[in-house]
Design goal:
The protein has 554 residues and is an alpha+beta fold. The chain folds into four domains: 118 residues, no CATH class; 105 residues, PAS domain (Beta-Lactamase, 2-Layer Sandwich); 93 residues; 157 residues, Histidine kinase-like ATPase, C-terminal domain (Heat Shock Protein 90, 2-Layer Sandwich). The chain contains 16 helices and twelve strands. The strands form three sheets. It has a five-stranded antiparallel β-sheet. Strands 7-9-10-12-11 form a five-stranded mixed β-sheet. A two-stranded antiparallel ribbon has the order 6-8. Strand 4 and strand 5 form a beta hairpin. Helix 2 packs antiparallel against helix 3, helix 5 packs across helix 6 and helix 10 packs across helix 14. The longest helix is centred in the first third of the chain and has 45 residues. The radius of gyration is 54 Å and the shape is elongated.
Amino acid sequence: MTEFLSKLFSSDFMPHGHCYFWNPEIVWLHATSDGLIALSYYFIPLMLIYFVRKRRDLAFGWMFVMFGIFILGCGTTHLMEIWTLWHGTYRLAGVIKAVTAGASLATAAALVPLIPRALALPSPAALRVANLELEKEIGQRRRAEEELQQAQAELEHRVRDRTAALAAANEQLQVEIAEHHRTSQKLRTLASVVESSPDFIGISSLEGDAEFVNPAGRALVGLAADEQVRNTKILDFVAEEDRQRFQDQALPGALRDGHWKGETLFRNFATGASIPVWQDVFLITEPGTDRPLALATISRDLRERKRAADALLAAQAQVAHIARVTTMGELAASIAHEVNQPLTAVVMNGNACLRWLAGANPNLDEARAALTRVVKEGSRAGDIIRKIRALLKKSPPHIAPVDLNEVIQEALVLTKHEMLRSGVSARTELAGDLPIVPGDRVSLQQVILNLVVNAIEATRMIADGPRELVISSQSDGPGEAVIAVRDSGVGIDDSNLDRIFNAFFTTKPDGMGMGLSISRSIIEMHGGRLWATSNESLGATFRFSLPTVASAHA
């Protein structure tokens, strides 16, 4: 054995190349093949070791290491095959083969009992099924975790606060007491605001069961105590005539969009009276998740506001009536002239009739013709007086179909004498197909009269040039009628084009500054608009537009 070990690295045998008669093709075939095999056998263990190091979760990682040692030994034996082609170091080659044999036997011995355990490992298909089941379970748990997240966060917050309190002892206790005092104060302040609010403040469940109404709200609807509130539903607070609309629009809107605003009719539980309120309905949601928890409303009583609005409308009607009377006063001479003409004709035709009847042979045909003219002129005078009475009469607006061309012609009749006296001529450009508009005839005639009178006054102030008014009507599309009054007067400064419609603003020395303001209010009440523009040469043009009957019904 000593001699074997001492000659372990000796090359005292005939090299293997002699067996191949040193045939180059055979020598290099074996050398190349053994070299490639040795290279592959060295590379495979390295990859196995790398794989084992990266996959720490392998069930039998040590077996990969044993295979690596075994394959490494095999590679070394092939390397020695190359060496022994030229060197007879067969003792070392045998030792390497013996080591490789030992590694092979150890690997095989370890592999036999390992096979049943390896077969017991789940197959890829089983792992996929298990993964799917696991993913389902994870999804269920995630949903449960999301639902409990808020509660868990609050719990963790309390745990942290409690841990900090235990660490800080007496000092932290004082801080908590102070914080509790401040929080209580805020809650008391909020409760005081809700309790003392003059508005109706209420809370209900998502299903519509009333849960809370503040004292002002209970007083508004005639409920005495909280017990009565908890026995009602949301729809019980709404007047019967408004209940269906509230159920179809307000509640679905609040639940869908998170809020709804609009006017609603509440009812008084004691008297049954309807109460107009401006209501803001909104969802109370859970912080962080926005999960709806309840419905709430803040509603304001509109009765005082409506009474004030009615009083304002009455005042505006009174001012408009005064403006009409003032306009009639300014047109007194023109009105007297227009009434005097048919009355003079009545007197002349009456005298003629008397003459035809007073003769020895009465001419009944001429008398009848004269009487016919008397009736015609009397009816004309009656129409003029009736229109003047309608303008002077103090009556509420009456909405009916109005022909604006007729209203323009009536206004020109009343201002005809004033135009002649001022040396102003009028020309009309009226559309034959002007659509009918819904409105109050008297109010619209007041607007046109005011615009025409203003145009006459502006035009007669110029010394030179033509004094002409152009009153036109046209249809602006299928749903709008436009009236324009164009003059050749002194015009309007561009800086005053918007200000002239303000109350009490006037450019006339003796003006009150109310006519255009009232006119704009009347037009806007009819759903239209009134505006002014400067002409390119002289004067200004006032226009107003009104929706037609067709657009109002659309």
